[in-house]
Amino acid sequence: MSFFLPVLLMAQSVSDPHFEVRLEQPLFPGKDGPLILFDQHHYNAFSLSGQYKGFADVAKAEGYLLEDYKRLISAENLAKAKIFVTVNALSHPSDWDLPNPTIYSEEEIEALYRWVHDDGGGLLIITDQMPSAGAVGLLAERFGFNVINGVTHRMDGQAELFNRTIGNLLPSAVTNREGRRVNQLRCWVGSGFIAPEEAEVFSVLGDAYRLYLPSKTKDMEHAIQPDIPYISGSNLANGALLKCGNGRVCIFADASPFTALLKGINSEKRGMNHVDGQDHIHLLRNILEWLSQL
Q1: 84: helix, coil or strand?
Q2: CATH class of domain segment(s) 30-292
Q3: Distance of alpha carbon 162 from the chain centroid
Q4: Closest residue by Cα to residue 173 from 290, 55, 18, 27
Q5: What does the domain layout of the chain look like in residue ranges?
Q6: What are the pLDDT digits (tens) for 138-162?
Q7: 280-292 vs 53-62: helix axis angle to the nearest 10?
Q8: How many whole angstroms separate alpha carbon 207 and alpha carbon 110?
């Protein structure tokens, strides 16, 4: 069985040039919505003009303002924004083997926490599998989430679908939004986490998954090696919401659903442009709206 880390295939993926976003009744038709800061300072693997162009297209179509954020996080810089987004931050640009320490300093983490809790900011943490799950571990922990620095694997080899029928997509503020109900998601590997009791979990892994815990990325580049430790996906979430003081946090443990990519020589669709991902735009819009507290 082949098992490739999606983050290792970035060079083989391009933004789908045919992906177009046309929204009925955008929240901010005058293009004057709240400012979203998109982190680019912490070796983030995705950019708004690259693999996360699909994300940018949806946010802009909704009327949000977007800014690449390329400096240390501070209260002063956060004050002008309503949402801060981090996607696939990395501890190191090329060394992805353990220990994958936090890339966010204590000062940055505390600035984000105070901005959310005290000032009503909205934080969106999106992380794939090891090594990016490790890089955001302490940031997520500050809000009560225990992100597992591993690699998810659906044991039967089938598509990673999350829907109401299977029961791994749950009712929530972002899946049951009136007029934009989310009935199905598709993921492409990722990680998982233990959510605090006060969080509202909207997608779960369950016992159909294992979360492998490799020490080196090469251990998962091809076939899964039999000596790699793992834990069950039971009781692990991969999507959740948290109200924190005056602000809000959303964490999602796979970056692919909010892309619109063509992957490999066969230009396989991945993300919001995939036939299984027709509700992904709804989910992204709902998350941004929820974080904005509109």
Answers
A1: strand
A2: alpha beta
A3: 15
A4: 290
A5: 30-292
A6: 999 999 999 999 999 999 999 999 9
A7: 60
A8: 35
